[in-house]
Specification:
By secondary structure, this protein is of the alpha+beta class. It contains two helices and four strands.
Length: 81
């Protein structure tokens, strides 16, 4: 099942790498990643990650990403089959 997750994160070295590592460790296949500055703020960025997983793992990956220090907000913005 394809999911799209929105992540607001601090624009620091290694943050995106740690997020990608979480997906990789859990065996989720990332289809697409888009990262851009957040509303003219050089200290924050938004990441939109499109990935595949089973339907029971949504809250688990959301909670695990939220626990990272440099992540400010995580939302699942679209669900599709």
């Amino acid at each position: 099942m394809k999911k799209i997750i929105y992540i607001l994160l601090e624009n620091k070295s290694g943050v995106l790498s740690r997020i990608i590592g979480l997906f990789s460790q859990r065996g989720y296949n990332i289809k697409n990643i888009k990262v851009k500055p957040f509303k003219n703020n050089k200290k924050l960025s938004t990441a939109i990650v499109e990935f595949y997983n089973n339907k029971h793992a949504n809250n688990k990956i959301k909670k695990q990403i939220s626990k990272l220090i440099d992540v400010l907000n995580v939302e699942i913005i679209k669900k599709s089959i």
